[in-house]
From TrEMBL:
Pathway: Nitrogen metabolism; (S)-allantoin degradation; (S)-ureidoglycolate from allantoate (aminidohydrolase route): step 1/1. Its EC number is 3.5.3.4. Pfam families: Allantoicase (PF03561). It catalyses: allantoate + H2O = (S)-ureidoglycolate + urea. This is Probable allantoicase. Keywords: Hydrolase, Purine metabolism. SUPFAM superfamilies: Galactose-binding domain-like (SSF49785). The gene is alc. Residues 17-174, 195-325 form the Allantoicase domain. It is an enzyme of class 3 (hydrolase). GO terms for molecular function: allantoicase activity. Belongs to the allantoicase family.
Length: 342
């Protein structure tokens, strides 16, 4: 995996189940815009009753007690529940289209809370940990901040100083669901919400390969992974999946929905064991456009990664790899959680 944390899944995005639970002010533009999956847009001279309509979270202008500039520590705050708990590797505070009304500084905190706490409980909670110190940001820009923590978090708290607008908040990391959930029975070992992720791929020209591991059905061709047209012979595109942990794959689904004229002509699945050796899970098999292909897998070897080869190129909507964890994998996940490392 590249050192670029933005290649990791966005754990806060709405399509993964994230939610903006609370904000202390959203006078100009609603807080829910922060985690929309698409990039922020802007239409000039689109005025509503509260002023120019912005695709982001925008607060009122703070004032001091004398009616002048606010106190140096004045801020506005929003609390976001991650779609799935995880280890945060980096945050992007995107101020797209906010040019004269962006906040000059921001900070981000995180907390791990069990169960389903109420908004009041989260607002009053102790134990918030700073993962991004108060820092300057630029307007109309993606402002990235790497996070150096191995802890598992469930919620983040975004603060802007003193006020203004933020278009999107991206919280990139690795999902770490409750191990008890993963031990309940067979599940999709590749799904982002279960701890899977894309470790590498041959090409990401049109869209991000992490899309194929997102929950639910794809909504359009743009909600999948599509490569450039391959012109070199005897080569093919591929994507490498890091499973939630070591497991035995028993079934797979390769979904080409919405790819009517640009799906791969064939595909194969190769498992990669802990020692780096390979095992065939699904030999090269013809694929049809706009189709959910389901396959039973007859391989007893535990694997840590699975490579999907797409021949020769094209697009995929979703990839599902169903199976069960090994006993050693379950023990590692429990130990991670108990030791506070995830």
């Amino acid at each position: 995996m590249s050192d670029d944390f933005t290649l990791l899944p966005d754990l806060a995005v709405r399509t993964l189940g994230g939610a903006v639970l609370w904000a202390d002010d959203e006078s100009f533009a609603e807080r829910e815009n922060l985690i929309r999956p698409e990039a922020a847009t802007y239409s000039p001279a689109t005025f509503g009753h509260k002023g120019q309509v912005y695709d982001g979270w925008e607060t009122l202008r703070q004032r001091g007690e004398d009616g002048g500039h606010p106190d140096i520590d004045a801020c506005h705050t929003a609390i976001i529940r991650l779609g799935v708990p995880g280890v945060i590797k980096g945050v992007v505070v995107d101020t797209a289209w906010f040019k004269g009304n962006y906040p000059p500084e921001v900070s981000v905190e995180a907390i791990a809370v069990q169960g389903h706490p109420s908004v009041d409980e989260l607002v009053a909670a102790d134990g918030w940990t700073t993962i991004v110190d108060r820092a300057k940001v630029d307007g109309d820009s993606e402002n990235p901040f790497a996070v150096d923590s191995a802890r598992r978090f469930t919620h983040v708290r975004l603060r802007m100083y003193p006020d203004g607008g933020i278009a999107r908040l991206r919280v990139h990391g690795v999902a770490k669901p409750d191990p008890a959930w993963l031990e309940a029975g067979p599940f999709d070992l590749a799904a982002i919400e279960n701890g899977g992720l894309i470790a590498d791929c041959s090409n990401r020209f049109y869209s991000h390969p992490q899309n194929v591991l997102m929950p639910g059905r794809a909504r359009s061709m743009g909600d999948g992974w599509e490569t450039a047209r391959r012109r070199d012979k005897n080569t093919n595109d591929w994507v490498l999946v890091q499973l939630a942990e070591e497991g035995v794959i028993t079934a797979a689904e390769i979904d080409t929905s919405y790819f009517l004229f640009n799906s791969p002509g064939a595909g194969s699945l190769t498992g990669i064991r802990a020692d780096g050796s390979e095992v065939e899970l699904l030999g090269r098999t013809r694929l049809q456009p706009d189709t959910r292909h389901r396959f039973l897998i007859d391989a007893a070897d535990p694997v840590l990664q699975v490579r999907l080869d797409a021949f020769p190129d094209g697009g995929l909507a979703r990839l599902r790899l169903y199976g069960t964890l090994t006993g050693e994998a379950r023990a590692r996940l429990r130990a991670e959680l108990e030791n506070g490392q995830a």
